[in-house]
Each structure stands twice: as structure tokens, then as C-alpha cells.
Specification:
This protein folds into 2 domains: about 15-55 and about 160-270, Rossmann fold (3-Layer(aba) Sandwich); about 65-145, Adenine-specific Methyltransferase, domain 2, CATH 1.10.1020.10. The chain has a 7-stranded mixed beta sheet. It has 11 helices and 7 strands. With about 270 residues, the protein is α/β, with parallel strands linked by helices. It has helices spanning about 15-20, 40, 55-65, 70-75, 85-100, 100-115, 145-150, 165, 200-215, 225-230, 265-270, and strands at about 30, 45-50, 155-160, 175-180, 220-225, 235-245, 255-265.
Length: about 270
């Protein structure tokens, strides 16, 4: 299994093999919610269209793709003991939130991702990164993972855009894999702040509509809840357990049910 260089809430590293088995064969994989890119890393398509609404994420991927060796070397310089304390973390976070230099912002995004609490990516209503210091003894610098990611990016095009726009530009002979922010499994598990705008039930329903009416197969991951099962009525559903890692308590990270909703030609014709 190939691991992404960024931590990501809801990342699919542990599920990549199972999800890959469900993906139909095609020339291109389109990901409207690419996140850290676990499915991208663990599949073998000729071409990839990787999209996300998070501009910092896509900018970081772009900077790595354009300047792989330099970017990795410069990012490594931030992973020093002098930067592993709350005061420096706050200072570098403020720099990240204020800079307009895309290269510098991408380097700081990697630093924040590895030094912040639980690897979360969260923004306040002003669009500022607002996760606290993680207090890790020795944050890992993912050099090998960055090299592998940069190499595979040669087959990918990157876009910062919403899922609705991505669905308007699906290449022929593609399959679409969607990993949206999940429906909450409980009232205390509602983490959807991947962007300042959040992701609610209206977005979930619209994504389902686009999947049903898309000209190519679409697969959607989500939490297995009564609400999500009702939402994906008519889709081919697959169920499995997964270890969730978003909880702030490491002793409270129990297995949870997830589902894959598969919309292939048969389901899409039935919905038409």
C-alpha cells in the first residue's frame, strides 16, 4: 500500500484495496474530492483528474508537481526541533494565513499538516487555518511519500473547483470516485469543515443526483447510516468496517460501518 504524504481526516489508505476492487475499468479516474490522494496513489489508470475545493491542498500538489526536488528539500527545512513548539507553530500558522506567496504557502501547509493536532485541516469562517499545535515528540517528514506522489502526478491534472463543476467536465472513458465529507454517524461526530463553507445535506443530495445522471460510472463513499442508505436508494451498496481516526481520543477510535454507493449504467438508466 502506498501512503500519501499528508495526513487527512477520513483518508482512504486502509480501504484503498477494497475500493479499487469496486472501480470499473477505464482510462481515467476522476476524483472530485481528492483529499490526500490515497485512491490516486493505489490505482493504476492512464490518466487522473484530481479536484478539490480546498485551494491550499491543490496548490500544494501543484507546487510539488512543478518543483519536486526543490519543494521536498525546502519542506524538510521546516521539520526541525526549533519549530516543534507551540510558539513557533502559532507564528508559522499566522504566516501561512497571511502570505500570498503560493510556494511559501504550500511549504507551510505541509508543516501545519504534520505538526498540528491530529493532522486536521480546518478553517474558521474567515477562511483561516485554525487547528491547534499537535505536541508530537518528533513529527515525521514524509520524504519518500512526497517523491512517490510527485512521480505519479505526472499522469494527473489538478483543479481547484467544486464537485458540481468537476461533473461538468468528465472525460469519456472515465470512472468517478467521490469521497465527500461524511454524513455524521452521531451528533458528536459531525466533522465537515474541509473548507470554510462546510458540506451539508443539500450538498449530499446534489452529489447523489449528479451521480445518478452522470454518463460514466460513479462510486461514492460515505458513513453507513440510515440517512445515507435512504439517500442512495437504487444504488448498488457495499458495506464494511473501518477504523475511524478523527476522534481526539486514541482510546476511543472504534470501528464504524462505511458504505460504497455504486452508480453504474444499470442504476443510472433506472434513475433516468
Amino acid at each position: 500500500m502506498n501512503r500519501p504524504f499528508l495526513k487527512w481526516a477520513g483518508g482512504k489508505s486502509k480501504l484503498a484495496a477494497r475500493i479499487s476492487e469496486v472501480l470499473p475499468k477505464a482510462s481515467c479516474l476522476v476524483e472530485p474530492f481528492v483529499g490526500a490522494g490515497s485512491i490516486f496513489l493505489n490505482t493504476d489508470f492512464d490518466h487522473y483528474v484530481l479536484c478539490d475545493i480546498n485551494p491550499d491542498l491543490i496548490n500544494t500538489f501543484n507546487q510539488l508537481k512543478q518543483h519536486p526536488s526543490l519543494f521536498i528539500a525546502d519542506a524538510r527545512e521546516l521539520f526541525v526541533p526549533a519549530n516543534n513548539n507551540d510558539a513557533m507553530f502559532r507564528q508559522l500558522k499566522a504566516k501561512f494565513n497571511s502570505t500570498s506567496d503560493k510556494y511559501e504557502k504550500a511549504l507551510l501547509f505541509v508543516y501545519l499538516n504534520r505538526f498540528c493536532f491530529n493532522g486536521l485541516c480546518r478553517y474558521n469562517k474567515s477562511g483561516e487555518f485554525n487547528v491547534a499545535f499537535g505536541k508530537y515528540k518528533d513529527p515525521y517528514f514524509p520524504a519518500e511519500e512526497m517523491v512517490a506522489f510527485a512521480s505519479k502526478l505526472e499522469r494527473a491534472e489538478l483543479h481547484c473547483r467544486g464537485f458540481d463543476i468537476t461533473f461538468k467536465h468528465i472525460p469519456a472513458d472515465s470512472v468517478v470516485y467521490c469521497d465527500p465529507p461524511y454524513m455524521p454517524a452521531s451528533e458528536t461526530a459531525n466533522f465537515t469543515a474541509y473548507s470554510a463553507e462546510g458540506f451539508g445535506i443539500v450538498h449530499q443530495r446534489y452529489l447523489m443526483h449528479l451521480a445518478k445522471t452522470c454518463a460514466v460510472p460513479v462510486i461514492i463513499s460515505n458513513a453507513d447510516t440510515a440517512q445515507s442508505r435512504a439517500l442512495y436508494t437504487g444504488a448498488e451498496l457495499h458495506f464494511f468496517d473501518v477504523q475511524r481516526s478523527i476522534s481526539c481520543r486514541t482510546d476511543n477510535r472504534e470501528k464504524a460501518q462505511e458504505l460504497l454507493a455504486v452508480y453504474n449504467k444499470e442504476q443510472q438508466e433506472r434513475a433516468a
